[in-house]
């Protein structure tokens, strides 16, 4: 039976059998965000499992594969892209929405190519997630292939610097050390506007 992520738990006369609930796995290393999103999805009638990383998510899926999954692309250890591939290997019918918090459109597009249903920028709320699943179930408007333009080198550098700075919780000195550049050089780069795509 095809289940719609926007359908409410209806009686037998509707699309769903009484007591039947769609399952969603929420995977994010940010505990506050993960639990808030899980609570909002439970309030909307979904059965929700949570995981903080790759290993716990795979363990949960091997026990009971969810119909839907929300996966953060950037997590400590193995990435959300690796998790996406493994989730689809375990159950190809699982619909996955990926979340990106650092604005890397190139990585999100790669996730879509690998089988993700849709991607959203963080922070996203439960309504955004459910709308993304609904969008992913619609047929494409134009089946013509879209040419992918790789980001410029300057844009890729900017995204990498932003990601490292985010990993360092905004600590410029630590980010400079990890990037292997002088702190003042990093500060000058950060004062500039992000380069165009």
Describe this structure in words.
This protein has 197 residues and is of the alpha/beta class. It folds into 2 domains: 23-137, Rossmann fold (3-Layer(aba) Sandwich); 153-191, Homeodomain-like (Arc Repressor Mutant, subunit A). The protein is 44% helix and 13% strand. The protein is built from 8 helices and 5 strands, in the order βαβαβαβαβαααα. The protein has helices at residues 31-43, 54-63, 80-90, 105-113, 126-137, 153-167, 172-179, 183-191; strands at residues 23-27, 47-51, 68-72, 95-100, 118-121. Strands 2-1-3-4-5 form a 5-stranded parallel β-sheet, with helices on both faces. Strand 3 (68-72), helix 3 (80-90) and strand 4 form a beta-alpha-beta unit. Helix 2 (54-63) packs parallel to helix 3 and helix 6 crosses helix 7. The N and C termini lie far apart (42 Å). 26% of the residues are buried. Residues 1-5 and 7-19 have low confidence and may be disordered.
Secondary-structure content class: alpha/beta
Number of E strands: 5
Number of domains: 2
Q: What is the CATH architecture assignment of the largest domain?
A: 3-Layer(aba) Sandwich
What is the helical fraction, as a range of percent?
Answer: 40-55%
Distance between the termini: 42 Å
- CATH topology of the largest domain, which one? Rossmann fold
- Strand line-up of the largest beta sheet: 2-1-3-4-5
Q: What is the overall shape?
A: globular
- Give the amount of beta strand, in percent: 5-15%
String of helices and strands: EHEHEHEHEHHHH
Rounded to an integer in angstroms, the radius of gyration calculated over CA atoms is 19 Å
Count up the helices: 8
Uncertain spans, ≥5 residues at pLDDT below 50?
1-5, 7-19
